[in-house]
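Notebook entry, structure prediction.
Reason for the run: the old model in the group folder had no record of what sequence produced it. Starting over properly, with the input documented here first.
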Amino acid sequence: MNLFNAKARKFNSCLQARLFQDNIDTTVYYQLIKEVNANLPSLHKYLKLKQKMLGLETLKYEDLWASSVKSVNKVYPYDEAKKLVQNSLVILGSEYGDGLKQAFNNGWIDVYPNKDKESGAYSDAIYDVHPYIKMNYDGEYSNVSTLTHELGACNAFLAYKQKSAIF
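New structure, fully documented this time:
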C-alpha cells in the first residue's frame, strides 16, 4: 500500500512520501539515524550502570522504568528546573540554547496545573508558529525530566524549521 501510494504520487521512496506531510527532508531522517548509531555506546554504558545499580544479573525491558536510586524527596522550584534543563542541554550548542531561552521567556510553556487542565505533558506545533508545551509542573524530579523531554521535542521542531545546524 505504501509503495503504491509513493509511486502513484511520484515520490522517490516510501520514506519521502511519509515525511512529506510534515515537510521533513529525508536527509533529516538519515542524519537522525546516523547520530543515534554514533551515540549507542553512551546508551549501552548507561544500561550497564543501571543494571549494576539495580543489582540485576540480566537487565530486561521492564527494568528500564525502575528507579535506579532510592526515593528522593527533593523539590525543584521551576526557576531551578529551568537552569538544570539549560545546563544539561548546553552540549547541544548555542542555537539549541537560544531555542530554550525563547521557550522559557516567551510564554511557550503552560507550566502549572490549573482548574480543568488535562493531566500529563506534551508539546505540539502549529504550522508557522513556535511550538507550545503543556505540563503540570509540581517540582518533582520527574517533572524536571519531563520538561527536558518536551523541550527536546520543541527544539527538534524549531531546528528543522529554521534549517538549524543541529541536524
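Summary: Residues 163-167 have pLDDT under 50 and may be disordered.
The old model has been moved to the deprecated folder.
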